[in-house]
Amino acid sequence: MVSFSVINSLLSRRAVKYSSSIVLRRPYWLSSKLYYSIQVENRVQDKLVSVKWDDGKVTDYPHVYLRDNCRCPSCFDPQAQQRIISNPIYHNYTDAIVKTACMNENKDKLHLEWINDGEHTSSVFELDWLKAHRFTGDDKKDVHPIKRQLWGSEIQHDIPQFD
Fold this sequence. Notes:
By secondary structure, this protein is α+β, with helices and mostly antiparallel strands. Helix content is 13%, strand content 27%.
């Protein structure tokens, strides 16, 4: 016999019962919503896309994070559930900048257009995926823009070395 506290524990973890087995971790697509009431803002200067969710919370997604997690067929293998790193465009997006960010007609996907990203001109994210992978407020302090220092020919005589 299962105790009341075990049942409460399972329900609090959003347990789902399939035949005789209980699945404790629910994939984001099983808890999908048909419609989100959200606002999207592309903050090009900060290299962030801000999403204000229907629960009032705002999530800032760095452009490089969105590019790194692109779900298009040339970047992501849905069967293997992993990124395709052999893709030649994989290493060329460190300066990825979103040109436009908008919702599709059904309000269930975020459509991004990229500036100067070679042949990869756009990305589409399901809102369920974005919401499942949003940063908490504590993570915002860990998002820092990286200042690049370009090296010219003057470094040729004094190349930095690291151990």
